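User: Can you predict the 3D structure for this chain?
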Amino acid sequence: MNMVLNDDGHTGIFHFDSLTPLPLWPGKITSKIKKNKVDIIMTNPPFGKKCVIDDKKILEHYHLSHKWEQGLDEKWVETKKVDESRTPDILFIERCLELLKPGGRIAIVLPDGILGNNGLEYVRQYILDNADIVAIIDCSVESFLPSTDTKTSLLVLKKKKAAGLPQTFDTFMAIAKTCGHDRRGKEIYKRDEDGECIIKDDFPVIDNDFEEITRRLIEYVKSRNIYN
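Assistant: Here is the predicted structure, written as structure tokens:
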């Protein structure tokens, strides 16, 4: 709404189901958003067992909606069989990486089950094959309360120039124990070093740490005249 009021939204904001197969996207959208062309994506996709995609016409277009089997080398291999349903968060991972250009970045909120459940190891393999993990930020359990109590993390990914290339830099990791409010959504406070009352929120501190590390990395890359 802010963009519309500032006359910068009538041609750049679209309301559409982005999990729809790309060939079915309207021309007014594909003229602006193209496969392998997007620089940055920031998204908080819907997740949860109550929210599933079971339309075969959609599922058949995604690698991650197929059944995967583990081979003798312990690598997961995609089969030709399409599963009956998928939660949209898994499909959004693939769709976002599909839209990103090589070197493009994505910040995506995902339930912790994708990062740790044994049955979703093939999803993690898909991520590692197609993207470098820039950062993993463990969100506090209150982050989306009182609406939902699903434990989540924020992933920052960088799309690889070619699938399977090894990652050449360390991953930034952090834990946010507080998010500025409690389970009921009520703001929580603490005293700073000067005794002033401020909101108790770890995310601004993590953001500053991440920004500082990124700045140092950029300086290092410039000093060595290299790019990654």
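Residues 203-224 form the longest helix (22 residues). Helices lie at 2-5, 27-30, 56-59, 88-99, 112-116, 121-130, 203-224.
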